[in-house]
Design brief:
With 130 residues, the protein is an all-alpha fold. It is built from 6 helices and no strands.
Length: 130
């Protein structure tokens, strides 16, 4: 694969992977009490709501920009695995099993991104040139 094509593919992948976190964070802002209630029903403190929102939107934005990509991708892989275990562990429910596997796949994608880096169309690449 050519370097230009590879850079474009990695950039597109970053945007696609980050989108779920940015939109998830924004949707939590739209219904904070419902989200807090769901978190508390899963035995998590409701006080984690706003840090979660900031993490989802902020880390998603950093991935889109390709800034500190390897570190942020590792954090998002861990976050995806943690949320899979906490929120999607009822395997008798087929939807929950699919959601669990979705989170596992997302974690795998972020591990791959952490290993290959942000690609040429990123702030990380611009920083390396400077």
């Amino acid at each position: 694969m050519s370097t230009r094509l590879q850079s474009a593919a990695i950039s597109a992948a970053r945007v696609m992977m980050a989108l779920i976190f940015i939109l998830s964070g924004l949707s939590k802002i739209g219904a904070p009490e419902a989200t807090r209630g769901y978190m508390e029903a899963m035995h998590l403190p409701g006080a984690l709501l706003w840090p979660t929102i900031v993490f989802e939107i902020g880390s998603g934005a950093l991935i889109v920009l390709g800034y500190r990509t390897r570190i942020v991708a590792l954090l998002l892989a861990g976050f995806s695995l943690l949320t899979a275990a906490v929120f999607h562990h009822q395997f008798a429910d087929q939807i929950q099993m699919i959601m669990f596997l979705k989170n596992i796949a997302i974690a795998g994608g972020f591990l791959l991104l952490a290993s290959v880096g942000a690609g040429g169309l990123s702030l990380d690449a611009k920083k390396a040139i400077a």
